Amino acid sequence: MVYLDYAATTPILPEVREAMRLAEERFFANASALHTPGHLAMNEVERCRETLAEMIGAEPSEIIFTSGSTEGNNTIMRTFEGYMIETSPLEHHSILMAAAEYGGTKTPKLYSYMLANNETGDIIDLHKITEVAQQQSADENSEIFLAKDDFGRDLVAVRKGGYIHSDLTQALGKIPINVNKLGLDYATFSAHKIGGPVGVGALYVRKGVPFRALLLGGNQEQKRRGGTYNTVGICGFRAALETIKKQNSTKIYNTKVRKLRDTLAQQILARIPGSSLNTDLGKGKALPNILNVSFRAAEGESIQLYLDAEGVIVSTGSACAAGDTKPSHVLMAKTGDAEVAHSSIRFSFGLDSTMDDVKAVMKVLPGIVERLQKISTIS
After folding, report:
1. Does the predicted TM-score (pTM) go above 0.85?
2. Residue 296 half-sphere exposure, CB side, CA atoms within 13 Å?
3. Which residues pair with residue 106 across a beta bridge?
C-alpha cells in the first residue's frame, strides 16, 4: 500500500504505540484521584502539557487537553457566543459551522483563520490579521469592559478590537510554530496529525483572555474542560511530540518531503494532459507535504477509487467531509470553479514517504486519468 493521506490522519508512530502500552499498564488510574496511582497518572498528563507548551512557545498553564481539533474549535467559537466572529470560507467545517451557530453582533470580535489549509496546504500571513485587531484595539473610540463568566461574575478585561484564534492542526510539526510570535490568543491542535492517537488534542488559551468551557461537569483542566482524563491518549500525544522534536521533523518536511511533493507535481504536469495545481509550490506559500491537483474532465472521486484499487491511498479533500457529494468548499472559495473542485485530488506525504511512493503513483495515475477523460462528457 502507498499511503498518501497523511493530512487526514497519520499512522501511529512505534514510539507512540509503546508509550501507550506502558501507560495502559502503569497509568490506568483516574488522573484526578487523590491516591498514588492517580498522582502518577496526573504526572504523565503534566509532562505532555509541558512538552507541547515548550514546542509552541507557551506556558504549561495555557494548554487545555481536548478530544481533538473539532472540539477545540467549537470551544473557542462558543466562548464568543453572541459576539462577532470573522473567519474565511477556506476554514475547516468545525470552524464554519460553529461560527454560524454561535456568532452574533456584539464586540469584541474573534478572528479565526487557520495558519495552513488542510486541503491545499496554503499558508496565510497571520500577522496581517493580528495587526488589524491591534489597530482596532488602539482606536481612540475603543472601549475596555469586563466580560462576564457563566455565573455573571466579572471575568477579564477584554480588548474591544478583537482576539485571534488559529487552527494549527496541519501546521504542527511541519513548520515552526510560536504562538507569541504569531500573535495568537487561541490555537488548536490534534495528536493524530503527527503520529499520535485519534481522540486527543489540545487548546492553547493565552493567560487572561476570555474562555468558556464547552464540556461542563468536573474540575478538570482548572474547570475549563470537564471529563475524565484520557491519560493513555495524552501519553501517546507526548510521545508523538517528543518523537517529531527528536527527528527535527520541520527540517525533514522542508527538505526530503518537499522534494517528493514537488517531484510528483512536476511529473503530473508533464505527463497528464489537463492537470493543474491548486497548491502553490513556492517556498513558504504552502505546507511542504500537501499537493492538491485538478484533472480536467476526470471526476476526483473516481480517480480516488481507481487509485485505491491499485493500492494508492489519497483523498478528494477533507476526510471530515467524507460522504459529502458537494464540491470542496475550499476549492470553490479559492477558484469559484465547480469543475476544478470536483476534479481535485489531495496527495499528502509523511515523514516515512519515499520516492518509490511517487513512482508508484505515476505508474498508474496517467492511465486512470486518461481512461476517465475518454468517457467524460466534458470536452
Report:
1. yes
2. 8
3. 83
Under DSSP, the state recorded for 319 is G
Residue 190, SS3? strand
DSSP 8-state symbol, 51: H
- Grid coordinates belonging to 261: 511533493
- Which residues are catalytic, by number? 320
214 close to 203: Cβ distance less than 8 angstroms: no
Q: What are phi and psi of 134, to 5 degrees?
A: -65, -40
Q: Which pLDDT tens digit goes with each residue over 50-74?
A: 999 999 999 999 999 999 999 999 9
SS3 percent helix, strand, coil of the chain, rounded to 5, is 45, 15, 40
d(CA 190, CA 156): 28
**Cell numbers given for 212:** 468558556
pLDDT at 159: 54
How distant is the alpha carbon of residue 220 from its chain centre?
24
* Residues 15 and 228: beta-carbon distance below 8 Å: no
Strands of the chain, DSSP E: 2-3, 63-66, 83-87, 106-112, 144-148, 154-159, 163-167, 186-190, 201-205, 275-277, 290-295, 312-313, 344-348
The identity of residue 181, as a single letter, is K
Give the SS3 label for residue 107: strand
Identify residue 86 by its one-letter amino acid code: E
Q: How far apart are CA 344 and CA 295, in angstroms?
A: 6
Exposure string for 312-350, b = 16+ CB within 10 A, e = fewer: bbbbbbbeebeeeeebbbbbbebbeeeebbbbbbbbbbb
Q: Which set of grid coordinates corresponds to residue 296?
A: 480536467
Sequence letter at residue 289: N
Rounded-to-integer distance, Cα 189 and Cα 344, Å: 26
Q: Which parts of 216-328 fold into alpha helices (H)?
A: 220-223, 231-247, 249-252, 258-271, 300-309
Q: What is the DSSP-derived secondary structure letter of residue 278?
A: S
CA quadruple 81, 110, 186, 202: dihedral, nearest 10: 40
pLDDT in tens, 239-271: 999 999 999 999 999 999 999 999 999 999 999
